[in-house]
Structures are given as C-alpha cells and as structure tokens.
Amino acid sequence: MNHSYKKDLKLPFVNDAPVTRLSDYLINGQHLDHETMFGVANAKVIFANYEVIKSDFPNQWDRITKGVDCEEAAIDKWLVENTAFISNKQAHSSCTNNSISLTGVRCRAWRPSQCNRSAILGQPEMYEEDSRFLFDVKGNGVSLNEDPKFANTDGFMTLSEAIHEVIIEHLIFASMVHATVDIRPMPAYGVVDLGFSVWSEDDHKPERAVLLLRRATIKHQNQREPFEQEKESALVFLKTELLFRKYGLSSSNCASVGFNVLYDGIRLIVDRDGQRIKLGNTLEHQLMHDLHIKKGNTIIIDGINIQTTNKMESNPTSIRIMDFEGYKICSRFRNDLYASVDTDYQNLKGIFLSRKDKKYIQPDPLLSFAQITADPSFVLLNQLVENYEKNHIDAIELAKLLQEVITSATVRLNKNKAIY
C-alpha cells in the first residue's frame, strides 16, 4: 500500500468478517428484494479507508493491484465500477435532483426490507469462493415500491450526511476502545461522488449526491421484522446509550424517535409528530411512575435509536453498531429516555429512564466530544462541504481535514496521545 496516498483516511476499524453470500441473509431471516440498477457516469471516489478494504477483500485487492503503479487508484476504479449505480425510480426522476448522466451499464442489486435508500451490490456468485464480495451501499435511490420525494425519502445521500456518519463511526470506535467494552461501529469503506446534485425541500440549496460504501452485514432481528425482545435486550441498548453519552454522543437526541407527553390531571396525552398515540392503563401507569410525571407536566421522551447487527443475538455483550445518521454530538442532555422492546417502537413498550434519575448521564467534561464543533478544522471542514458543489473543492483536501477532525477529537482519550 502507498501510505502517502492522500485520499486515504488511514483510520482504525473493527476487524470482523464481512457478509459475502446472499444466502447468509436468507438463512438469518432477512428478506432481500431483487432489482436492477443503472450505472452513473462521472462517479469518483472522494476518500476511502483503504486498509478496511484490503482486510475485508484480500484476494480482490491482490488481483486488482497486481502490477499497477498505484494500488489505491486501482481500488478506486474497482469501487466505482461495482457501486456507482442508482435505482430505476431514481434514475428517471428529476423532482429532487438535477440531470443524471448514465453509463448504459446495468447491475443486479438486492435491497433488505425497510431499507429505502440502501442496497446490497457486488458479486456474490463468483466461481471461486474467495472472490465473492458484497457492499452495503447507502444513497443509491428509492426502491421500486417508492417514489422519490423530499424530507429524507428521496433515496439519495448528501456529502454532509456521509461525512457526518464517518465522523460518528470513528468517535464511537475511539470512545468504546477507551471504555474497554466490545462495542464497535461497522466500518465504512469510503464515499463516492455521483457527479450530480440534490436539493432540500426547505431552500432547494444544491448539495452533491454521494454513496456511502459500508461493510455488508445482517441487521438484528428486532430491526427488520415484527419482533418483541426480552427486556434484558432493551436494557443493553439503554446501557449502551448511556455509555455513549459519557462521551457526548447520542443515538436518541434527535427528532426521529421523540415523543411529547402531557398530563392534564386525568389522562396522559402522548403524540409523535402531531399524531396521537393511544396508551393502555398499564403502560400509562408505568410512564407516570418511571418518569415521575405530575399534573401539568409536559415532557419529551427521546427513544434510543441504536441500530445493531445480528452479532448481538448470539452474544449480547458483543455489539456491532450501524447507521449513524441520527446520532448527535451534545454538550448536555435534557429529555427522558426510552428503550423499546418492540420493533414498533411507537407503542412505547419498553424501559424508561427519567432525566431526574441518578443513573441519567451527562457528558464527562474530560472525555466529551462536544468541543469538536468549535475546532478550527471542524469549522473549515463544514465550509469545504458547503462549498464543494460550487467551488469544485479538492477531494484530497476534504480527506485531510476529515482525518484532522477525527484525530483532534479523539486525542484527549489517551492522555493527550492520539489513538489514531
């Protein structure tokens, strides 16, 4: 490897085996829908964590890089050729994006249930077993059953979203290593620029559409189908969230899984996004008791939104985290907490923790990542992302700044020595 390759993040990762067979999904009960996707012209790798790719696909790496001058450039070409595709619905839509240039190449893709903007791509059926490879690709468009529209349902991923997920991945990795627990984020291989823009519903400001390439894995059963887990599992999620919060990280401090609760002296009134949620008497009494709700109280409950792989099903103490789009970096937490025991988290069945409880955790000032947002490299990184579309920002500069942001944020966790 060329360790001076400037698009290389050179960041650590958990060295688990990737899923390389479609049959593994079926054996574990995860349904896959087959569809055809269309190749996108002018796609390119912005940055990658090449050591992860080499570790997960050693045979492909050796074959692709044999006799080439720059191994990483050859890997970039391989990544683009096997991942730069978008769904049929997205390729023929212009309501959320500008014009998309297609290559004319098509590929097979397999979409896990409840995945609106990610799919499995790759070669799962090579004649030689050690030549199989799969990618979990996020941002390649809505499924055949959906229509592209705004508000996070256009099927695309923006550059700012992808960089946010990469940052959170490595903050989780560093903090869980520091905490000496077997909780690790699933690694991203890299980010691919698709060469066209998408815009938001609010201001129609254009931002570059990208793909986030991730290690293929299988989701935990409670996140892919109707499933009611034991309370012990919900307690694991609660403890994990509280551990994250020690470092100023949270999966729950966002609007995606939040509930507003009002007690009028007669009944509890609960709603999410303006939609009333009905409670039975038993659940109502549990909420009143666990969250110390009194007449006239109005509270907000943050639902824990930790997505895990199926590794936890066989070993609850070994947790692999995935999907970091809803994670936040916070200096303080103010809402009550809820860990669901049901796939349908909106029914509020689960474990609750009041913000007044002594177990409720605030960030440790010596360990918290909250100060990252004031770091000059973080501010500059956001400016580069914001200007990437109009100023043709150099990808090498983005990769360098991203690495600086993560290194700067994690240096204090090891007595002022970077663990990266």
Please provide a written account of the structure:
This protein is an alpha+beta fold. It folds into 2 domains: 22-218, no CATH class; 225-330 and 332-353, no CATH class. It contains 11 helices and 20 strands. It has helices at residues 22-27, 50-56, 58-65, 71-83, 88-91, 159-178, 231-246, 281-290, 311-314, 376-391, 395-410, and strands at residues 32-40, 44-48, 85-87, 102-112, 118-123, 133-138, 157-158, 183-185, 188-199, 206-215, 249-250, 258-263, 268-272, 275-277, 298-303, 307-308, 319-322, 328-329, 336-340, 350-353. The strands form 5 sheets. Strands 2, 5, 6, 7, 9 and 10 form a 6-stranded antiparallel beta sheet that branches. It has a 6-stranded mixed beta sheet with strand order 14-13-12-15-19-20. Strand 9 (188-199) and strand 10 form a beta hairpin. Helix 10 (376-391) runs antiparallel to helix 11. The two termini are 18 Å apart. Residues 416-420 have low confidence and may be disordered.
Keywords:
single chain, 420 residues, alpha+beta, 2 domains, 6-stranded antiparallel beta sheet, 6-stranded mixed beta sheet, 20 strands, 29% helix, globular, disordered C terminus
Please give the count of helices.
11
**Parts with pLDDT < 50 across at least 5 consecutive residues:** 416-420
Question: Taking Cα atoms only, what radius of gyration do you get, to the nearest Å?
Answer: 22 Å
**Residues in helices, as a percent range:** 25-40%
Classify the beta-strand content into a percent band: 25-35%
The best one-word shape is: globular
Structural class: alpha+beta
